[in-house]
Automatic annotation (TrEMBL), chains A, B:
UniProt keyword list: Hydrolase
Region annotation Disordered: where it falls in the sequence: 143-182
Database matches in Pfam families: NUDIX (PF00293), WHD_NrtR (PF21906)
Protein name: 8-oxo-dGTP diphosphatase
Biased composition (Gly residues): 166-182
Highest taxon listed in the record's lineage: Bacteria
DNA sequence: CGAGAAATACTCATACTGAGAACGACATCG
DNA sequence: CGATGTCGTTCTCAGTATGAGTATTTCTCG
């Protein structure tokens, strides 16, 4: 970048655009962090301590530290604070910018522009309250977002062994159940946008693997797609497709040691390949052609 | 939305996050407005009047009016100011959010978060300086953005009749030719992101028609794709494809009256259909599978 | 009028997709 | 232990989409 002509520029600028007088807009980052727990899609949420929306769930987020961090850094910091993950664990989390929300009255206190981020995380431990939040936890998305699940019904019965306790972490109370069922501010909208982005993104990128551990079976990968898309997929065709797309997954040469829950052979294990884009893409079933 | 408990909240908030002391971040919108002129992709740019980057080209943009407009409204306003279009003409312009840019020092004066928008416009009249810009004009993207054109070479000779004067509008000077060839601030990066988004977006949406007038020929539509993608397409296959995707275009029943430049029959005319998404999509040639 | 160019249509080989079936490994139940 | 059912994996087959090339007709230009 070129060097500015500091003094002169600064004088002009500040005279015309004094932040206090003309531009009292706050900038925050909010994170839609998604993970899979017990075969259901969950989103990280915090319980608001103060007004407005006290006691309601909200997306984790906070103010960008002016002059000291980029938006990406702010999002990573907020995510780390709320999940309690260290840098190494965060490395395995995919984090991308989702979009910005800046209606003048989305926050009743002042004009706040929020830059939303979307995160895909493998199964994570219970969240922990960070910052000024009263509690934090993973919420099943279909419990909050009207657009949480696509039009379809639930994918299939799907009962995995482990605990089904959905509200992990901090508080034992269950805020957000005030009838609206929604998140604070416009976070319901942000979540819906994040979910749509996630559904679209796993079509043409290998990011579905970001929901899984180091190694996984094709069936586990298929369950990620089924859960995120909310639709059942043909197991045989999915298998063929995944193995035929170059760089999607690579074999570890090993076989799953865990016994299948209801019989069947031990599945082979794979790890994420080196592709950044899937070609050809895995398209969602239906999509009802054009018009929608 | 629920009603805030104003007073208490406001006290807490302001105590902790006084805009002046803790959060002097300015919020702007910048617009990557693309159009086709003489078979080449052009971007709307303004010549900077003051420091920093005085005399350099930059994307049109400006501060969001706190408490008075949303980000979308601010972007539409900036675009209207710079192009001089009225509301009716703007209606035919596609405008969508591109992403936000917030590195602490992207503007040397202070921390500025810029929300970038992407606009697709049909051939427009010369731009007019609006606001504090010294000049405004449509610049051929390959003249500025290193990533302006995809890896490929120029699509094909392509010489259309009219004036090739690229720098329309305001000033007769040609700023930006200081050796770097780039735009001010990080606008080169924003432009590159906008171009990539545009290339991707015309794959699965009918937005290529937004670069054309009310009615157009299949060949004109193909030229949009060729220009944006920077690659020649097979005319016959393109024709078959466009007509086979439901809702992409619909026939007007009429035939082009203008004589072809170098012979050939009069082409049939079409208008944009009602599809929002193309299915199946029109994929860019090659894309070199996975890894990239 | 003849050459060349362009709009559109057609052909053919190949690739990808959805649906279904086959087969063998494994668990659980009786 | 054997019957029964589940599940991972592979195959087959038909329908559809794609890339490349060619044919036909209608123009303009010289």
């Amino acid at each position: 970048m070129a060097e500015p002509d500091g003094t002169q520029a600064e004088r002009d600028f500040l005279a015309q655009y004094d932040p206090r007088a003309f531009d009292p807009i706050a900038v925050t980052v909010d994170v839609v962090a998604l993970t899979l727990r017990a075969g259901r899609l969950h989103v990280l949420a915090v319980e608001r301590g103060g007004q407005p929306f006290a006691g309601r769930w909200a997306l984790p987020g906070g103010f960008v530290r002016a002059g000291r961090e980029s938006l990406d850094e702010a999002a990573a910091r907020e995510l780390a604070e709320e999940t309690g993950l260290d840098a190494a664990a965060l490395d395995r989390v995919h984090l991308e910018q989702l979009g910005s929300y800046g209606s003048p009255h989305r926050d009743p206190r002042m004009h706040v522009v929020s830059v939303a981020y979307l995160a895909f995380a493998p199964g994570l431990p219970d969240a922990q309250p960070g910052g000024d939040a009263a509690g934090a936890g993973w919420l099943p998305v279909e419990a909050i977002s009207p657009a949480g699940q696509p039009d379809e019904a639930r994918p299939r019965p799907f009962e995995q062994g482990r605990r089904t306790g959905a509200y992990g972490g901090g508080a034992g109370r269950r805020p957000g159940h005030d009838g609206s069922g929604g998140l604070a501010f416009d976070h319901g909208r942000i979540l819906a946008d994040g979910l749509e982005r996630a559904r679209a993104k796993i079509e043409y990128t290998p990011l579905a693997t970001a929901f899984l551990g180091e190694s996984f079976t094709i069936t586990e990968l298929r369950e990620v797609y089924e859960t995120v898309w909310g639709a059942a997929l043909h197991a045989g065709n999915f298998h063929r497709k995944v193995l035929s797309v170059p760089g999607f997954v690579e074999s570890t040469g090993e076989t799953d040691t865990r016994p299948g829950s209801r019989g069947g052979p031990r599945a082979r294990l794979y790890r994420a390949g080196d592709a950044r884009l899937l070609h050809p893409a895995l398209l969602r079933p239906d999509r009802e052609a054009g018009v929608r």
